[in-house]
Design brief:
By secondary structure, this protein is an alpha+beta fold. The protein folds into two domains: 129 residues, no CATH class; 101 residues, Lipocalin (Beta Barrel), CATH 2.40.128. 45% of the residues lie in helices and 24% in strands. The chain has an eight-stranded antiparallel β-barrel. Helix 2 runs antiparallel to helix 3 and helix 3 packs antiparallel against helix 4. The chain starts with a helix and ends in an 8-residue tail after the last strand.
Length: 254
């Protein structure tokens, strides 16, 4: 699943296309005259999403299947007309839409509510997306963002030094993600999670472990020379020095 989402997320254009396709199709469902077209578009898009979810064992199979079944249900009433038009090549009579209200006032109120609904569906997601982008600095990588392979690591404590350099639990790779999340991995064990803060002006780095425990606190200075990152500071009460290389094949640094 992680590999599939990483590949899909590597292309912003693809994400934009799929996202806009779902939004436009959902908007078409709001009006009776365009609901069939919206359902057709949704079935096409959601069938691809469902197939990806099952093929790559993505954990949202139930939700995507539910949405696909709902879209198919919306097409059930037009099934005969669609078969005649697309398969049997027969003449299809236009669909009639009886008025929801007989009074002029009722229809006018309905149209006003439809326009307001349309505006809300357009602008609320845009506002929400912009707010989340601002809150989490989406698209703005931290100064040390990326996947780094640890070349050397040294600590003042013999116990800590042995812990950091052991193959089973030692520091082999450090991943600095956006949203202030960092992970330290060895080749054999699961990752250790950190929350980190970077001051690019003062070149300081603060890391606090979040799982499997919260006892590790790292306060250090960092220096970057091209694709080399050097961290020198304190690991709890012990001094720490580590040097690592950026692995560009994992992350795109734009």
């Amino acid at each position: 699943m992680v590999l599939a989402w990483a590949c899909l997320g590597d292309s912003y254009e693809y994400e934009f296309f799929i996202g806009c396709g779902q939004i436009i199709a959902a908007m078409l469902l709001l009006y009776r005259r365009t609901a069939t077209l919206g359902a057709i578009l949704l079935v096409t898009i959601l069938a691809n999403i469902v197939f990806v979810n099952f093929s790559f064992n993505v954990c949202v199979k139930f939700f995507s299947c539910t949405y696909l079944l709902m879209a198919l249900y919306l097409l059930a009433d037009d099934a005969k007309r669609l078969v005649n038009f697309f398969i049997l090549n027969r003449i299809v009579e236009p669909r009639t839409f009886p008025p929801l209200f007989t009074s002029f006032t009722g229809m006018r109120i309905l149209k006003i509510l439809g326009v307001l609904d349309f505006i809300g569906i357009i602008f609320y997601p845009l506002y929400d997306t912009w707010s989340m982008k601002t809150k989490y600095n989406i698209g703005k990588h931290t100064a040390i963002y990326g996947v780094w392979t640890v070349d050397s690591v040294h600590a003042s404590s013999d116990t800590l030094n042995a812990k950091l350099t052991t193959d089973s639990i030692g520091w082999k790779k450090i991943i600095f993600e956006n949203y202030d999340n960092a992970y330290v991995k060895s080749w054999k064990t699961t990752r250790t999670g950190f929350h980190y803060e970077v001051d690019s002006a003062k070149h300081t780095l603060n890391m606090n472990s979040t799982f499997p425990d919260s006892s590790i606190v790292i306060k250090a200075k960092y220096k970057m020379i091209k694709d080399t990152l050097i961290i020198n500071g304190m690991y709890n009460k012990d001094t720490l020095f580590t040097k690592m290389r950026l692995q560009r094949k994992y992350f795109i640094r734009k």
